[in-house]
UniProtKB/TrEMBL annotation:
This is Cysteine-rich receptor-like protein kinase. The keyword Kinase applies. InterPro entries: Endo/exonu/phosph_ase_sf. It comes from Trifolium pratense (Red clover). The lineage of its organism: Eukaryota, Viridiplantae, Streptophyta, Embryophyta, Tracheophyta. Gene3D superfamilies: Endonuclease/exonuclease/phosphatase. Keywords: Kinase, Receptor, Transferase. The keyword Kinase applies. GO terms for molecular function: kinase activity. It comes from the Eukaryota.
Amino acid sequence: MEVVDIPVLGKKFTWFTVDGKSMSRLDSFLVSWGFIANSGITGQWIGDRDISDHCPIWLVREQSNWGPKPFRVINGWFEHPKFLPFVESSWKSFNIQGKKTFVLKEKFKMLRERLKVWNKDVFGFLDLNIEKTVKEINDIEGLLEDGGNT
């Protein structure tokens, strides 16, 4: 079976040293022509790295609808002393009737909304601060990729 290295979109490199002086394309997808033909894959997108020294890579299709955004938890929440009591009291306060799967889905939906407010009240705009810092790091890495050392 012949495998193909799919064209790269986005960044050139998938790995960076902590100091940013070395970078390389260590990671990629290798797929067969049959997989490409059946899946509609057009490339692989190298995204912005976060806390890892490796960048995430996604397979890109012609068009995809992945549905609603998944329930997301910020790891730092677990270190806050009031987080678990807040979640527990919120969960117990939800009074939903119906089938168990419906009740679970609705409780998660309500908890998600409460956590958005709690996160903003306790941490401020943490997501925006994280995104801003990650963007600054990735902008610097982009300059380094292009050969600029300023």
